Amino acid sequence: MKFNISVPCEKSNLQRIRAFILDVLKEQRLSDVEVHSMVLAVDEVCANLMIHSNNCSPDHSIDVEVLIKAKNKIIFDIIDKGRGFDIRKYPEPDIKEIIKSKKKGGVGLMLVKRIMDDIDFIHKENYNIVRLTKNLQPSG
Amino acid sequence: MVQIDTIKENDITTLSINGEVDASSSIQLDESLGAVVSNGDQKILVGCEGLNYISSAGLGVFMSYIEDINAKNLKMALYGLNDKVMNVFEILGLDQLLTIVKTKEEALSRVNEV
């Protein structure tokens, strides 16, 4: 099954993306905490792309596709046409260093890495895909 | 969308967070917490019973004040987090770096510790 949404690159639209992911995932037999963590991971990637790759421009859009494969795998494709950056090359910062620096950001992609099982960056001719994969534990 | 109320009772300042703190709304948390910390309020409670969602932008706000809170010898305790929100703090181990308890009573006793 495949689901998708497209929104302009404004941070106020993050809420719409979260509601969409929640809607798609609530049909699956997953715990609230599990669903919430996947919503968070997608939100983090979208926020990053909106801010850093698209300068929060409402003329740019971001597409999110959710592909549910059988019962054991969910793939989230986050597609934009902004300045692509390979999220896999992002160095994991040290939490204590961030605290010391009083910086207010920098842990979003760390959350994504810890929540998802696989992160891919696919650069096409005129768009980029960040692909997040979550393997689900077989229930019962 | 988030609403943050700051209530001062005696020597206790309580920030009550209601709604969702994401990349779009974290600025409000930053303003509210920043005001309380720069004011030097000694005992800070953060009520999270109405906090439905927090992303890294919100975590970043809490992280950015840890140094100032320690330098000024202020005490801050978060309470009333639901399981989903608590899980976000735990993923990064922030539950070890911030004081997070279940109830307001526990939070009060933590900020009242000498």
Can you walk through the features of this model?
The complex is a heterodimer of chains A (140) and B (114). A five-stranded antiparallel sheet of chain A has the order 1-2-3-5-4, with helices on one face. Chain A is 35% helix and 27% strand. Chain A has 140 residues and is an alpha+beta fold. Chain A has helices at 14-25, 32-53, 95-101, 108-115; strands spanning 2-8, 61-69, 73-80, 118-123, 128-135. The two termini of chain A are 22 Å apart. Chain A is built from four helices and five strands, in the order βααββααββ. With 114 residues, chain B is an alpha/beta fold. Chain B is 41% helix and 32% strand. Chain B has helices spanning 26-39, 56-71, 83-91, 104-111; strands spanning 2-9, 12-21, 43-54, 75-79, 100-101. Chain B has a five-stranded mixed sheet, sandwiched between helices. In chain B, strand 4 (75-79), helix 3 and strand 5 (100-101) form a beta-alpha-beta unit. In chain B, 43% of the residues are buried. The model of chain B has no long low-confidence stretch (mean pLDDT 97). Chains A and B meet through helix 1, helix 2, helix 3 and helix 4 of A and helix 2 and helix 3 of B.
